Amino acid sequence: MGKATSTLASNRRARRSYHILDTLEAGLVLLGTEVKSIRAGRVSLAEAWCRIDNGEAFLIDAHISHYSHGNLNNHEPVRPRKLLLHRREIARLQKAVEQKGNTLIPLRLYLKNGRIKAEIGIARGKQLFDKRADMAERATKRQLERRLKQY
Predict the structure, then answer these.
(1) What is the tens place of the pLDDT at every residue in 124-146?
(2) What is the residue-wise DSSP string for the chain?
(3) Strands 56-60 and 63-64
(4) Which of 57, 88, 139, 148 is deepest in the core (most CB within 10 A)?
(5) How many angstroms separate the CA atoms of 9 and 114, rounded?
(6) What percent of the chain has pLDDT above 70?
(7) Is the Cβ–Cβ distance between 9 and 111 less than 8 Å?
(8) Distance (Å, rounded) from C-alpha 78 to C-alpha 59?
(9) Are the C-beta atoms of residues 126 and 18 closer than 8 Å to each other?
(10) pLDDT for 76-120, tens place per residue?
(11) b vs e for 7-23, b when ≥16 Cβ sit within 10 Å of the residue's Cβ?
(12) Strands 49-53, 56-60: parallel, antiparallel or unpaired by DSSP?
C-alpha cells in the first residue's frame, strides 16, 4: 500500500535562499494543541532552523499559533521542538553542519500515515549572483514554454 502524504506547511524562502544539498525525514515531538494547530494550517516555517545539541536535534523558531479551542494548557507558540532521528542520522547531520557554510533548515511539514513529519534539508546559502542566475533561468524557461504553447 502507498504512503499517503499531504503537505501542511512549507518553507518557500528556503529554496530561494539556499542550495539544498540533501534532505531527511524526521518526526516531531509535539503537544496535542500543537498538532491541532498544525492540521489547521496555523504554522510558519519562515524563520525556522535546526540545531544539534548533545546528540539531539531540535527545530528552533518554528511558529505554531495557539489552538483556538485550547484552554489554559495551550502551548507556547515559539519553543524548541525535538526532532526524532536515528543516532546515525544525527551524526551525519552534525558532520554536514560542521563543514563551512552548511546549515540545517526545515523545508516542509507534512502528514504521513497520520503522523506529522518534517523534511529537513542540509543547505548552503546562496550568493546574490546565484539568486540572479536562478531567476534568469526561470524566466527563460517561462519564455520557452510560452513559445512552445503558441506553436
Answers:
(1) 887 777 778 888 888 999 999 98
(2) -PPPEEEEEE-HHHHHHEEEEEEEEEEE---HHHHHHHHTT-EE-TT-EEEEETTEEEEES-EEPPPTT--TTPPPSB--EEEE--HHHHHHHHHHHHSTTEEEEEEEEEEETTEEEEEEEEEEEPPHHHHHHHHHHHHHHHHHHHHHHH-
(3) unpaired
(4) 57
(5) 15
(6) 97
(7) no
(8) 10
(9) yes
(10) 888 899 999 999 999 999 999 888 888 999 999 999 988 999 999
(11) ebbebeebbeebbeeee
(12) antiparallel
Segment among 38-52, 69-83, 133-147 with least mean pLDDT: 69-83
d(CA 79, CA 75): 9
Name the one residue in this structure whose C-alpha cell is 531567476: 135
Residue with grid cell 500543537, as numbered in its chain:
34
Find the mean pLDDT for residues 50-65. Answer: 91
- Reported pTM: 0.76
- In whole angstroms, give the CA distance from residue 34 to residue 57: 19
Question: CA separation (Å) from 83 to 36, 46, 60, 89, 136?
Answer: 18, 18, 10, 11, 36
Of 17-26, 52-61, 74-83, 123-132, the one with minimum mean pLDDT is 123-132
